[in-house]
Design goal:
Blueprint: H1 3-12, E1 20-23, E2 26-29, E3 39-43, E4 48-55, E5 58-61, E6 73-75, E7 78-80, H2 83-87, E8 108-109, H3 113-130, H4 136-147, E9 156-158, E10 161-163, E11 182-190, E12 195-202, E13 207-209, E14 212-213, E15 223-224
Parallel strand pairs: 1-3
Antiparallel strand pairs: 1-2, 3-4, 4-5, 6-7, 8-15, 9-10, 11-12, 12-13, 12-14
């Protein structure tokens, strides 16, 4: 993506002042702080505070869930969970909304695969219009780059040169990698009894949605009910 595109998208999705903090769905004023849609979430279980971003009609955590469970693991400062740990005995769902709270705070839920699709579809349409492109690969590249954080992604070697893998965080989603090459977020949707469907961002600015073993450890982003 060229510098002109970055500037244009950044201007379109500018920061708004004035924050609120939500505790179990309630809001009150904050003296300071800033997030893209002007809200933060307080998880009363452990007093962790998360930035919140509105993308289209969806309100997402703009940070990975940090709630510690008995079997969660930490990698690259990101809390990771198996699908079973994430779901907390809830059944698979691919509805909009998923109605699966899982390990999310009250009034928030684990996004279904269909809800991840809605996020991508919205951003694809937005980017296609903003960069005036009908090339799917180019649109997807810009979307993936815009979802990734501006720091934390190690460079990768491609055709005898090192390539900067950091994103632009254009949309405020701020996805950091849990490994040298990707970050995966679980959905509430299973593929079969052994596999579920995560949403994956790669260092090469690609988006993958494919079946993955439920015992694998992936990150969590919660979506507001």
């Amino acid at each position: 993506m060229n510098a002109k595109t970055v500037v244009f998208l950044s201007l379109f999705l500018f920061l708004l002042a004035g924050c609120r903090k939500e505790k179990d769905g309630k809001s009150y004023s904050l003296d300071n702080g800033l997030s893209l849609d002007g809200t933060s979430l307080l998880d009363f279980r452990d007093d962790q505070v998360y930035k919140v971003i509105k993308i289209g009609d969806q309100e997402w955590m703009a940070e990975d869930l940090r709630y510690v469970t008995p079997n969660s693991q930490t990698r690259n400062n990101i809390q990771l969970y198996s699908w079973e740990e994430l779901m907390q005995e809830s059944l698979s769902s691919n509805t909009v909304p998923s109605h699966v709270q899982g390990i999310c705070p009250k009034k928030w839920h684990i996004p279904s695969d269909a809800e991840w699709d809605l996020l991508v579809d919205y951003l694809n349409r937005l980017v296609a219009e903003l960069i005036d492109s009908d090339r799917p690969w180019e649109i997807s590249y810009v979307v993936a780059e815009g979802l990734k954080s501006e720091t934390g992604w190690p460079p990768y070697h491609d055709y005898a040169q090192w390539v900067d893998a950091n994103g632009t965080n254009t949309f405020g989603f701020n996805a950091f990698p849990s490994s040298s090459s990707h970050i995966s977020y679980w959905s509430s949707t299973e593929h079969n009894s052994s596999y579920a469907l995560p949403f994956e961002l790669l260092h090469v600015n690609e988006i993958h949605q494919h079946a993955e073993y439920k015992q694998n450890q992936n990150a969590c982003r919660c979506l507001k009910n």
